[in-house]
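Translate sequence into structure tokens.
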Amino acid sequence: MNSTYMKLGAALLALATAAASPSGGARRPTSAATSGVAVVELFTSEGCSSCPPADALLARLVHESEASGRRVYGLSLHVDYWDRLGWRDRFSNAAYTQRQSQYARRFALQGNYTPEMVVNGDGECVGSNAGAVQVQVDRSLARKSGATPELAVTASGHELRVSCNVAHAPQGATLNVAWVQSRAVSVPDAGENGGRTLEHANVVRDLRTVVLTPGFHDTIVLQRPEVEDGEVIAWVQAANQGSVLGAGSSAVRAPAR
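Result follows.
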């Protein structure tokens, strides 16, 4: 066989193998430092009967991004204000309610609601509105990133140590670092979803936010309540919970049982 064809065949085989391999570690396209990202924050609750379709939409976005290599980072943040209806969402956190409230002020909304999706800190919409979400995701991916965090994660039991580097970020920008559990299932016995099986993707179990300094390099410690498969997602955001400037991730697998 001609050596040129042999080299071409080997290159094509390498590309096919890479495309077929399951994702692991950070998603790093060739232009990761400058290509656009879409950080999708879903504010949801197991006590909200209109939330399951939004949970399913987030799961679909996560799955499609893994298959396509598009840098879409989905996060499911469970708020706590629906817990009063008889079912306490085990993933709910008052800090996520506060985060949503800050967005409500920024977008001049009358208050919090679920399900709500916020894309790249720039826009929000009803979390089950697939068309509106896709428009915002596509718009975000079309813009170049300005500050991409570099991550290295070390896992030991419930503790995750995340070494983070951010070379360039504007004054006042913050770094958000989250541990997300890939999959979770609940069956509420009370509340609006009583008797339903609820499936969640990329549930935020721990979230830390730090103000960036020039040439930032530090280690952020996260806790994973359950040692399950998941991902550390980090994103740089302009001051006052503004626009997302860049994002990265690193997958963490649970030890084999």
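Note: The chain has one domain: 32-251.
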